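Co-fold these.
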Amino acid sequence: MSRWAPNAHERLQAAAWELFAENGYEATTVAQIAERAGLNRATFFRHFADKREILFGGEDALSTAFVEAIRAAPVGTAVSECLEAALTAAGELMTSEQHRRAGQRRRAAEASVEVQERGLAKNARIAAAAAAALRDRGAGESTAQLGAATLMLAFAAALREWLDDDDPEPFAPYATRAFVALRASALELAAPSRSSMGPRQTSNAPRAPTAT
Amino acid sequence: MSRWAPNAHERLQAAAWELFAENGYEATTVAQIAERAGLNRATFFRHFADKREILFGGEDALSTAFVEAIRAAPVGTAVSECLEAALTAAGELMTSEQHRRAGQRRRAAEASVEVQERGLAKNARIAAAAAAALRDRGAGESTAQLGAATLMLAFAAALREWLDDDDPEPFAPYATRAFVALRASALELAAPSRSSMGPRQTSNAPRAPTAT
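Predicted complex below.
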């Protein structure tokens, strides 16, 4: 086993995801991952802080997709259009391989508070990056924060539904549905008057969608 | 040191906050907290899982304040009014003692990833409780989620500004300012058309954004 391992990072990731699929995340050890990759534990720890890091390896890709899409939108693009562009860009990452991995990650999170906490920390970093990208375009502080929160909620809702479907369809329609619902909710939240809580009213402001 | 310790929970909390103020969170040990309270380590661990639990001891109170205020709002109350009521109720918890404690918590979080992660987990639980309370009133799923997220953002923004002021004013005006800004942001996000990103427009429609 040489210290110089070409593509060690990718080999360790591939080995880990194979083992997670075979035996589950909890039952897989770092030693097993290293062995499957033909490497040793020391090499593993040169590439990853711990096993959870592999589970959340897609964080950078998602964050980059969001940030680049927000940055790339033409000057004058509405916040909601920036967020839609970010979701579209994220959708391109959501391959059938990602469907398997995200399902694995969800099962691991259901079984472990530590995994949940790592996921929350990951989401907080992605949201902060998206908020910074919106701020850089001139969005006010609360719009940047709420925009990033809406983006994360749309992505999470779309991901849940996408994962609930065993046969992974393209991600985009899930993301669109989630975002349209959230935009309607934003309008409802913005309304200072009585709206769709409790007994339904028969009329709404002209552009307000009906709550579902 | 008797095993039966009246008010052990409160005595441990008070001792811990005294020591955090004197020596900082990081430098304070569980042994010191127990000693200051006239108790032993075993008693500490019967009451708290770890030192971080003391730092986040207010979680239940905040969550309860949010949930009860949302539940208590009359039938037909708009979501935004439920959220305002929740912030008002939370404001009543924000005493000058809380100002000191929240400042301590912020410094501890700045110095420790573990404290940050516990804080994120706490916020996720409070948001989930608030979303459930909105759902129970008949709010749709995305409105419950976005409403809870908006509530958490408003509380966090108000808390930041409140803590930045050394002399703690009542919390309510901070919460109101933060919420008004977020409600305007919600309207901006709901707008499908070009809005305030990039060149500013001079007028906004009072109830509904202009369509393109």
